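From the thread on structure requests for the teaching lab: each student submitted one protein with a one-line request. Submission from student K.M.:

"Model TetR/AcrR family transcriptional regulator from Schumannella soli, tokens only."
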Amino acid sequence: MESTTRKRGRPPLFDRDHALAAATRLFRAQGYEATSIAQLTAAMGLRAGSLYAAFGDKKTLFGEVVAVFECSPVGGFVHAALEDEPTALGAATRTLRDAAALFTSPDTGERSLTYESGSGAAIRDAEVAQMVQQLRQADVDAMSRRFVRARDEGELPADADPEMLAGFVATLLHGLAARAAEGASTAELLAVADLALASWPAGSAR
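Reply posted by the TA:
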């Protein structure tokens, strides 16, 4: 007869990917500042000591969450648009349209970490704020490189400023995120994006 006595020893290993996904959902829904260790341990199914042992402190955990998130289709929506769309205007349009849908998603756990981190509240931790800013700057740099190529290929006029255009799109992203946090609808954000892109410079390439 098999013994039903629970064997002593080490507890079963936790599912790291599952725990990280739970932390990601929580950070995406509430932002870094509003998320507490107690909330994280409850969502991840870990005790505080186990969380610290597996992921380090809250800041380190957030860094890992963001690194994984940026490689996901949602987190990498800017880079996906730049790589998939055949024109710079198409990439800028898709970026803003995807952002409008993402920022107004009814499921706050499915929103952006880098453009909405903090759910509208400023990140007070300087290191975390710098981390998020660097990720946003990486998007700007990628857009600038794509727009340089568009200018070289004649899609943009020779006097177009790729860095300025990248900053233009980045500013729109920040504005759309801010308006979404204030309750703007997807339709409103799409209309704003279309209005802004009406001023996009045209080159000679067809």
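TA comment: The CA atoms of residues 102 and 111 lie 6 Å apart. The longest helix spans residues 126-152.
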